[in-house]
Write a structure and sequence with these properties.
The chain is of the alpha/beta class. The protein contains nine helices and six strands. Strands 1, 2, 3, 4, 5 and 6 form a six-stranded mixed sheet that branches. Helix 6 links the parallel strand 4 and strand 5. Helix 1 crosses helix 2 and helix 3 crosses helix 4.
Length: 285
């Protein structure tokens, strides 16, 4: 059964950054080559998730470091093409050392021997009334004895400068909204842990914060539906274009964008270019 039209924090960030990139990912579903940075992030997340499978006293830096290479080999078994990320064994070894450094830095931010997460890598989904389905994966949810909730997100990069980092803060408020609706209690604390440099960002969401993020989501969804109905997902050039894997499909780089398939648009958003909302989408929203 197809999921209801919806949005995640990462896809919301994509649309804000560049509607064409968003379209190529969500509508056209153009495959993208894996990158060393993104794959390193996945590896570090996997190690920190499985760290909590160990008994509390065994959650040590050395135990976590010992998990890095086996977890990487498991990733390679599932997707052998990841081996192409590294030119040779030396490059791979340096990359694994980088992952170990980030895992080790985690222990400077928290003591996992004192924590028992309520959820790890938890998939959450909520149908917003008269709006999209909200979905995502939360790295960790902690629940204190008094019922207080903390949401933790690991970032494998470095902490952004104060004037940046809005996408990560939006992501955390997005998750706070979902957790409040699904668990019936607003999270008391949202915490971003940056594992490249040990930076942290702490947020204490208020009712007004969550009202604001719901308003932002609804406005963003309206913009997405407008683009879907008009069939116009325009590129938005920025400094981030240098990291985009879709340059060959972007007119800003003399690329040719594939024709937009109305059926693919309707599957993604419940509306078709030039048309109204489909009955199936209407009943699910």
């Amino acid at each position: 059964m197809a999921s209801a039209p919806g949005i995640s924090p990462s896809r919301a960030s994509d649309f804000r950054q560049c509607p064409l990139m968003f379209r190529l990912r969500v509508v056209d579903r153009i495959p993208e080559p894996p990158s060393p940075a993104a794959t390193l992030g996945t590896l570090v997340h996997t190690v920190l998730e499985h760290l909590y499978d160990l008994p509390a006293m065994d959650r040590t830096p050395s135990a976590a470091a010992a998990m890095v290479e086996p977890e990487w080999r498991a990733m390679l078994d599932k997707d052998p093409e990841l081996a192409a990320l590294h030119a040779d064994a030396t490059a791979e070894r340096m990359w694994l050392d980088d992952a170990r450094e980030r895992v080790d830095r985690y222990f400077r931010l928290e003591n996992p021997q004192r924590l028992e997460p309520a959820a790890r890598e938890e998939y959450v989904e909520l149908q917003l009334e008269d709006g999209p389905s909200l979905r995502g994966v939360i790295d960790r949810v902690d629940v204190a004895p008094d019922g207080s909730i903390r949401i933790v997100d690991y970032k494998s990069g470095k902490a952004p400068r104060p004037q940046y980092g809005q996408a990560a803060k939006f992501q955390m408020r997005f998750y706070a909204l979902l957790v409040e609706r699904l668990r019936g209690r607003r999270p008391a604390l949202l915490q971003l842990l940056y594992l490249r440099d040990g930076g942290t960002v702490v947020m204490h969401p208020t009712a007004q914060d969550l009202e604001q993020v719901e308003h932002e989501i609804r406005e963003l969804w309206d913009d997405i539906l407008h683009a879907a109905r008009s069939g116009s997902f325009r590129p938005s050039p920025s400094k981030l274009c240098g990291w985009c894997s879709f340059q060959a499909l972007c007119p800003e780089f003399d690329g040719v964008t594939p024709p937009l398939e109305p059926a693919a648009v309707e599957r993604a958003f419940g509306v078709a270019p030039g048309g109204a909302q489909s009955p199936a989408a209407s009943s699910s929203m």
